Amino acid sequence: MTRQFPDGFLWGGAIAANQTEGAYLEDGKGLTIVDLLPTGEKRFEIMKGKVDSLTPVDGEYYPSHKAIDFYHRYQEDIALFAEMGFQALRVSISWARIFPNGDDETPNEAGLKFYDNLFDELRKYNIEPVVTIAHFDVPVHLIKEFGSWRNRKLVDLFERYAKTIFKRYKDKVKYWMTFNEINMLLHLPFVGAGLVFKEGENETQIKYQAAHHQLVASARAVKACHEIIPDAMIGCMLAAGTTYPYTSNPDDVFKAMDRDRESFFFIDVQARGEYPGYAKRFFKENNLTIDMEEDDEELLKKHTVDYIGFSYYSSRATSTDSEVLKNQTSGNVFDSVDNPYLKTSEWGWTIDPKGFRITANQLYDRYQKPLFVVENGLGAVDEINADGTIDDDYRIDYLRKHIAEMSEAIEDGVDIIGYTSWGPIDIVSASTGEMKKRYGYIYVDRDNEGNGSLKRRKKKSFYWYKKVIETKGINLEK
């Protein structure tokens, strides 16, 4: 059964500066971490913190440098989003466009002006900007100078950056988020926090100390946002997806709970305002010491987020059986054993619409704060037909089933602000750097090597999603 979504529910899409804008050093922008991620085999090792060079290397292809040229084409793209009926567009601000080095004395006016223009263009079509302050984004200078988020200095620099954009855009932006997929810090620490590791370092200690600095910075940003824009909402953002136990063996059940807590740790602090007991036990048993300043705990307690933003692509499964663990799905950052009840995408991501409903209920039961689905989508290879059309029924099927389960979650009593599907226009894949892994309703003529006209072309899903929005989610059929 399909139901009408509530009045005021925000339909739209989500993109990120580093995967769309290009113009990577234009108008005074500084180098940022994703500008150092090439395509190919090295990419994943660099994402994990094994970084040989903090400058681009000759002969490597860096897809973020040009991306899909949203920096120069945003008006064209926003017009297409408006044609679909978008009520919200999630974007991120590039920190290095505002403070090219991260510690500059004054902000870069050209960077500030770009986002002024972007938000004005969205407002022209009554599209609500939903803005992430840091989406896998640290100015590279801050890595060289301070070691990135391992250094407490970044808390002050991030707070200054956040206050700068709050003051500038206070009349244009009502929905904010602090860090994109903050839990990714544990899995891809260079992407999540700009962390570069030397041989022999205690990486776990460094990651959790960096996490503390980000959590304090997030709380300071929440405080500043509430003071500067009292009617705004500011949230956190989790890479979500419930972990299932492979069997009903209590050891499997406990391991699955433990895996989920790895991610919940961050949101527990941001939404509840304190370090949970299981985290304190983990620190103790692993001889980790989190260096805190005197007022950190009070700050975290007083300045919790207004809502929980989250991405959902797939569920996960885990086991304590060494034989079962041999059968891992490929492609996803989060380890998962094969779930015999579910299919996977071309990139090995488990497809589990019911898991979306389960995850939404789990988050709402845990935090009792509004949720905002800010990423959900299917990466797939799209073929252009002889007549120029693109029949992406597989994408429609994925989204249709997930939206239907989101409707069920709302019926369950889960408070959901809106839904911004990931990559409404084809963009550079964050995980692989590919263009052929496409999520969009709009095709962009660019290949994995950066060749192509960048021409935009509507897919079948473009017209389908337009109909979904027009009918407030009632008509989900192709």
UniProtKB/TrEMBL annotation:
InterPro entries: GH (IPR017853), GH_1_N_CS (IPR033132), Glyco_hydro_1 (IPR001360), Glyco_hydro_1_AS (IPR018120). GO terms for molecular function: 6-phospho-beta-glucosidase activity. Gene3D superfamilies: Glycosidases. The gene is ascB. Keywords: Glycosidase, Hydrolase. The keyword Hydrolase applies. It comes from the Bacteria. Pfam families: Glyco_hydro_1 (PF00232). Belongs to the glycosyl hydrolase 1 family. Transmembrane segments: none annotated. The active site is at E375 (nucleophile). Its EC number is 3.2.1.86. PANTHER family: 6-PHOSPHO-BETA-GLUCOSIDASE, GLYCOSYL HYDROLASE. This is 6-phospho-beta-glucosidase. The keyword Cell inner membrane does not apply.
